[in-house]
Amino acid sequence: MFNDNSSDGTTGFGGMMGDGMMGFGGGMMVFGGLMMLAVLALIILGIWALVVWLRNTRSRPEARTPTGAGAEGGQNRAREILGERYARGDLTTDEYNERLETLNE
Q1: Are the C-beta atoms of 103 and 75 separated by less than 8 Å?
Q2: I need a surface site. Which of 1, 6, 24, 88 has the fewest CB within 10 A?
Q3: Distance from C-alpha of 56 to C-alpha of 14, rounded to nearest angstrom
Q4: Burial of 14 (0-12, 13-18, 19+ CB in 10 A)
């Protein structure tokens, strides 16, 4: 059962199977440790990606609810859009004033 290594005077497991790790030595322990670190890194990366995605989703104007009470928040956004279109030249001054009056009603 025990192999007598007469060259160094020690006894223990050895022979054809090596040092009891089936010839792999500490390589399997290193591989297992690296795999554990890789899984941990993927979990951390996934949590980080989720936080970034949630932060970006909540910071987009179309994802937020209008500020203000009730429909007033929506009217403010409508005025902003109307002003942007007027600034780009999509609307004439008359069209802008007419639509602004409609919003103010």
Answers
A1: yes
A2: 1
A3: 60
A4: middle
Six-digit token pair at 87? 């600034």
10, β-bridge pairs: 5
4: helix, strand or coil: strand
Among candidates 87, 86, 89, 88, which has minimal Cα distance to 99? 86
pLDDT in tens, 11-27: 555 555 555 555 566 67
pTM over 0.90: no
Cα torsion at 30, 35, 36, 41 (round to 10°)?
Answer: 130
For residue 83 the two structure tokens come to 């002003």
